[in-house]
Amino acid sequence: MKDPAQQPSPHSPNMAARFTHHPILATLCLVSCVPVFWFFLQTQTNFAKLAILGIELWLLTIVYRVTLHPLAKYPGPWYAVCAEFYNLFSCLCGERHLHFKIWHDTYGPVVRYAPNRLSFCTAEAVQAIYGVRANTQKSQVYNGFNIPFEASATLTCIDRGEHAFKRRILKQALEPSRLGDFENSILENTRVLTGTVLGGVKEENWSHVVDLSETIQYLFTDMMGETIFSKKLEVQTSKTNRFIPELLPTATAGIHAAGHVVLTLKLQLHRFLFPGMMRGVFRFIDLSRQQCIDRIRDSATIPHHDVFSSLIDEKARQERQETELKSHKPSKKQYSLTLKDLTAEAGILMVAGADTSATCTVSTLFYLLHYPDMLAKVRTELDSVFPPDAPGGIENITPSTVAKCKYLYACIDEAMRLSPPVSGLLPREVLPGGITIADRWVIPAGVDVGVPAYAIHRDERYWSAPHTFMPERWLDSSDKTQNEKPDSKDVFMPFGVGRTICVGKAIAYQEMGVVLARMLWAYDFQVVSKEARGWRKLYWDYVSERQEWGRTQENEFQMLDVFTSYHEGPLVQLRKRSGRDLQ
Q: Which domains does the chain have, with CATH numbers?
């Protein structure tokens, strides 16, 4: 199968490069300035002069960006280098991860994808940009979240000290010794899936058509509600709260796009320029605030630990010490948790706790259903660890017992490699002093840099058969059967890298392992359609063709990049496997 990056497109850099050599572009802009300046001299009205002056400045800005700018030596598509608008457009259309893959295939390991932004697709860049000692901080793009929320969350803190403070609190909530606190929530909500939502599935006949994306998203939203807020949302069984999973991708897409035009946020222009997009964001903020207020109100009646407990406890500790802190000058900068901080944390935790884990679970099911040999291996392993005739049936599958299923977790890792839940680029701003990558690229302070996960996860320099679902690459060498060369696991980054690596990684693996093990142990699947209703764009009606640009790879789980991921399907029918006790 031909690599999708090699498919021609009227918008691809391969074709555009024939017409857009940057020196020629600069010359054309300079030449255009002459008649524009002549019109400026001939014009009598002040308004017209201002308009012409604006055009003149815009043309000169393009000349500067493609000739004298510190990043002018780096290759990239001309339409992205000239202005930020194309970067914003790619965020809105949901195909940004595909753009990065195609651009790197065209231009090489470094791509200038915006006037002051660089994308790197090398192993050295991963550590240089995201490593613990990297001379970088989160980009101003994260203010797309911080400004509307009027506070920053752990995952969006730009200040490194504040990030370390908030991360420490969440890390305590999710440390391995506390994972047992969440086991009942995982099991109870999975029982609702198999006992109620899919309770009518029998051995004799195939079930009604099920949209796996929708079904799994509802499940993980319920689990998120209990593990984070100790709140039963009952999304699986009631329509009341189903607006929550439907709202998340729209809100994250709006926040992500707004982050690339931060000036409009600071000037409050986003309310007028993007009214439809921002409505979803403001509704998400209201939802986050309400979840936060409800959890604080119910604190006295919740006897057990949840993720939000650690945040509330820290806020209470700070309030107890408030008088002491006022009585003397602190020896170092102090960070505090306000209601706005807790609201921001609630918003981020809803996305991280439901959206990303659901994407990983659905993509794993998708690939297993399209690679029957791998599905057979998973089921052989599951039936070996959990014999169908053993007392207890499906209840033998728990977070602790499913950890024995090495091949299942290899499938999860491989699905996250091919379809990472955050498939685009997590931008970092270079701090004073700059950074040097691979002793080759010297990047000055103030430049945004990053490594796109989707692109580097499919780079043939680091992976054998990069477009093939091959779980064996994650097993010990004695278990491998297909690998032709070693794979570079150092560039595997679905949970992030370095000091900002996801603190919820362990619980995410627990949840995904239990859900997948129980579903694959209990049911046979028949694929009706890979997609559900075609690709729904978030801000305007648009249904893409199956052969659209960058989406021609056979048996690939298709997603829209909305910072996290939006996806539909696959549509399947289910049938209970013979001899399975689901009670």
A: 4-20+77-317+338-576 (1.10.630.10)
